[in-house]
Amino acid sequence: MKKRTKKKIGIGIATAVFVVAGINIYLTQSQYATADAQYDDIASSVQIADTPVEAVPVEETEETTEDDFTAMDNGPHYDIGTYPNLVIDHAALKAANPDYKGWLYVPCLEISYPVVRGTDNDYYLHHTYEGTENVTGCIFIDSGCAKDMGDYNTFFYGHNMKNGSMFGSLKKLLSDPDPIIEDPYIYFYTEDGVYAYRTYSFHKVPPKSDYFEYAVTQRKYWNYIDKALQDRVQDMDTAVDKRKNSVTLSTCNGSGESRQRFLVHAINIGFYKPA
Length: 275
Known about the structure:
The protein has a single domain (2-272), classed as Beta Barrel (Sortase, Chain: A), CATH 2.40.260. It is 26% helix and 23% strand. The longest helix has 42 residues, at 2-43. It has helices at residues 2-43, 90-96, 172-175, 178-182, 218-231, and strands spanning 47-48, 86-87, 100-106, 111-116, 140-141, 153-157, 185-189, 194-205, 246-253, 260-272.
């Protein structure tokens, strides 16, 4: 009798675990669907023109040297180039969420989302752009970074979603880097203008990595770039002008004790004022 009782208890526990797992999967998928619907609705108001905006081609910049440290009184600068012509109603997006800072567009990975900057780095891990509590969260800029993209390096965070949303497509680069090699550009559209970047490195790091420290001096920023170039897992045909600022896209990679962060680094190649 005792063996039968234990067997029944074991079956009961297994059934309960199975039911709970099923419920969790259902709830997660339901939240995915809710978030996808919200972002699809937001994205429907963003139009991509057939041809890019024409501008003056970027001029080649001479390689920077140690002597340039004393010649950079005005901080990082921008050059002029071309960029995809996205028609974005920034005023409407900001009215929907005052934390709105711009629109992130990474063509090769089909990343196209509004970006916010909150008062901390926790809220938008668990809330969508519209403020709905949801596991998908929202792509956001590190709350410690400057509001005007004026830092040497600006961090963008997003979840590594299983359905490929948010920054879920970044992990594809580990198995197939060809998309970003062929189209290495990242764009950030703001009310003030469009920031264009070219990817120069991507790699995995531990959660507590020094890569998440702010570069507050020119020398630290240059060292940061050198380290990112050294740690890259794929050689990118990108000339890095250290006088320009950059962005880092960050997402989780792996799970449990093996959880890491996956970073994509891109250097600025242009800043374009709206016509």
